[in-house]
Amino acid sequence: MSDKLNWLNQHVVLCLHRKVQEIVQQENYELSSDLKNLADKFPDSEDFLNELKLQKNYKEACRFLAYNLHRRIAVWWAYRCVLDLKNEVAANPAKPRDISEIGKPKPFVIPDWAKEPAVSNEDMLIPSKMLQDVNKTLDKLKSDVEKLIDPEVRAVVDEIKAIFDEEQRKRYGMTLDDCVKKALATFKGDETSTRIDPESPIFKSEIELKSKIETVRKETVDIIKSVLPEPDIKKQAKQKIACLDAVYSYIVSPDDENAALCLQTGNIIPGEPEGLLALCAFWSYGNLSPGSNNVVKTPVGMFANGVNGLLLMCVLKEGGNLKPKQRYEKYFGIGYQTAIGSDNWGESVENNEIPHKLLESRLGENPDHINTRFRG
Predict the structure, then answer these.
(1) Residue 39 and residue 48 in contact, taking contact as beta carbons nearer than 8 Å
(2) Please, are residues 15 and 67 in contact by the beta-carbon 8 Å criterion?
(3) What residues make up the domain containing 186?
């Protein structure tokens, strides 16, 4: 059973190493360039952790704790984080996803802030009036310019333009002026909002292509459904509870039997936080072959990487009300309390109040089996 350690106040005492460099050398804790500079400035592990806290770099602070906390207390920390996530998601569950919706095209909706403001009839008259004023100004300017040009020069220009226009008529059937007038006449006579032909081959090809894509999408969904088994929610809930049972048993009594139980239950649902938590507990044991005569040591850094992967899984879990950064901050707070000794399993054992059992009872979950090894 753990001590309450109330006398230790706010000092981080449940860490493996006092110096950051020791964690790097002995636990394979990797430092980026910025973190290395920070470690040079704050070589003491507690000072380094507090500086990360002051910088609000909670993700790295969690990563640091995963490498430097004593293994058993680190498992307790991870256990508490999983329960916190479980409680958060229960209050605001994620919406279930239908596999049939994979790749399904969604209607394009322009958000209100991106829409053009509505134009009234009065507003539409303003550009027309402005255009009339501009045309009047241009006509007056043209008249004034013509008055300034010498009549003989103007006659030569008109003669050259007439020759050019005649060549245009012979080659294209109209002059540039005729082309502009025809375009304006066509525009004024068209009252539709668009002059795009809906029967264009381009649109027909688009419809055919969309139809082919939808056919392939449905076939793909059918293949996926035929391969993936239907999720058994009730069975998975029991498996998650079994993992939590195994982890708590291991925390209270870290022996061969409970370590093996963590491996057994964790391997069933490694893609769920509870399953990965059980595997982390197994890796923390230090012997990958519990119960045998040969000791297979857990590779250095394997447990810490597992805890960091678990925290990332919890942070990215759908549902709940907290954003990833907020979850990292909360999980660091839990980890810090465990590191200073104020949060541990001692009280739960003394009062025979198993945290995940209390949470299950409050959430209305009722497992069919009871692990009898909680008290070691």
Answers:
(1) yes
(2) no
(3) 121-192
Q: 249 and 206, same structural domain?
A: no
Q: Is residue 19 helix, strand or coil?
A: strand
Residues recorded for the chain: 376
Q: What is the CA radius of gyration of the chain?
A: 37
Same domain, 88 and 237: yes
Q: Give dist(CA 147, CA 371) in Å, integer.
A: 107
Whether residue 164 sits in one domain with residue 54: no
Do 269 and 347 have their domain in common? yes
**Tens digit of pLDDT at every position of the chain (376 positions):** 345 444 445 677 788 899 999 999 999 999 999 999 999 999 999 999 999 999 999 999 999 999 999 999 999 999 999 999 999 999 999 888 777 777 777 777 777 777 777 656 555 555 556 667 767 887 788 787 777 777 777 788 888 888 888 888 888 888 887 887 777 666 554 445 455 667 778 888 888 898 898 888 888 888 888 887 777 889 999 999 999 999 999 999 999 999 999 999 999 999 999 999 999 999 999 999 998 888 999 999 999 999 999 999 999 999 999 999 999 999 999 999 999 988 899 999 999 999 999 998 887 765 554 444 554 4
DSSP string for residues in 267-309: TTSTTSHHHHHHHHHHHHTSBSSTTSSS--BPPTTHHHHHHHH
> What is the Cα–Cα distance from 243 to 237, expressed in whole angstroms?
10
Pull the structure tokens for residue 88. Answer: 């958060």
